[in-house]
Amino acid sequence: SDVGSQKERVVTEEEWLQKWEMGNIGFHKEQRHPLLQKYLDVLLNGRSGLRIFFPLCGKAVEMKWLADMGHSIVGVEISEQAVKEFFSEHSLPYCEEPVPEISGAKMFQSTSGNISLYCCSIYDLSSSIVGKFDGVWDRGALVAVNPCDRQRYASLMINLVEKNSSYLLVTVSYDPDKHKGPPFYVPESEIQSLFG
């Protein structure tokens, strides 16, 4: 695929954790994403009480917004700091427990039970651990995944969704020879080949 010099680029989990520790999180948005607001009806498709997945969720404000609408939210994030900031910034009480199937992983759940955030590598998740989802909001995940891991990521996501699910994906378009990423450039042809 035509991704220029980005093809070999790898960002480690340690680098992502460091971004959170240093507050270098320009990818985090304080406001709801306008594209989610615009296409919310596509995601929901007239349904209520959905299970919606936020891959590489950070502390996305949309999680609380959708939970307040009556949906069940599940996210995954490598940074425990990000997860704890999400709950504190929304004044949401939560409990924390280990995830027996994943060494070192924790699950943070709002006491209301409608928001569950897994603190671990996304690649440690499976449908046997988190179940299947009616919808996915992928605002910064596919473009953050290392190019060499895209196929693995897409296969996992396909495995995590129900047959009638809706998958909203936001990517960025630019010349990949002028920016090393992340966010990485993912050409539309590659999205087609990854997700069919």
UniProtKB/TrEMBL annotation:
Protein name: thiopurine S-methyltransferase
Pfam families: TPMT
Gene Ontology molecular function, alphabetical: thiopurine S-methyltransferase activity
Reactions catalysed, as given in the entry: S-adenosyl-L-methionine + a thiopurine = S-adenosyl-L-homocysteine + a thiopurine S-methylether
GO cellular component, one term: cytoplasm
Keywords: Cytoplasm, Methyltransferase, S-adenosyl-L-methionine, Transferase
Main location: cytoplasm
Superkingdom of this protein's organism: Eukaryota
Residues reported in the UniProt entry to bind S-adenosyl-L-methionine: 16-27, 56, 77, 121-122, 139
EC number in record: 2.1.1.67
Gene (UniProt): Tpmt
UniProt-listed GO biological process terms: methylation
Subcellular location per the Swiss-Prot or TrEMBL entry: Cytoplasm
Gene3D superfamilies reported for this sequence: Vaccinia Virus protein VP39
Recorded family membership: Belongs to the class I-like SAM-binding methyltransferase superfamily. TPMT family.
